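Recall from the previous lesson that a structure prediction takes nothing but the amino acid sequence as input. Here we apply that procedure to Methyltransferase type 11 from Patulibacter medicamentivorans. The sequence below is the only information supplied.
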Amino acid sequence: MLALVTAKDPVVEFGSMQVEADQDIDLRRFFPDRPFIGTDFREGPGVDRVEDLRGLTFADGEIGTAVSLDTLEHCADPVTAVREMHRVLRPDGGLCLISSVMLFGIHGYPNDYFRFTPEGFRQLLEPFDDVWVCGIGEPGIPREVFGVGIRGGSLDALSLDRMPQLAAHQKWWDDAAGMVRIGPLRYPPRQLAKELARESKRLVRERLRGRSSSTRG
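The prediction returns the following tokens.
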């Protein structure tokens, strides 16, 4: 994506705290030798500056690129959060990159409030001059949703077929090589076998209890 649009400086990540030690989520490596500020609403690993997305302390137009990956579902007011990112972005091509999980279990970091459809992201990004959104996974219920907004520019260059990593992820989902498809889910055969074995035992117990009740009646 960054090869198709210009990410201006400085780059600020909102939601940069590395909550789990084994997560490889440090985005600094994607912006080498660039001014990069990691922010979160609390101190911790990966956080350079404490910020609340509902009321940022950055000045109007101070930021070149705002990045918020898998964070908005943890924000109690995502509408205000995106409007704040819009406010602090440069009006001459300021870029906002957001993502969120949709088909995913509740995960509190420390709280989990929302899930977003692609059109939900499009609505959140409504203040921007141009918007691009994409869902990855099952069209009717994507696993992940991505969105880009720009101030004072165009996103005509963006399309899924021009983003090799996202396109490969979608192809993996479509092909489901070595996986079992059940609706919008993909299961490794061994995991599915364990789930089916557990459910089979439960169903057998239920049937036996039903027969026992009928006999007593």
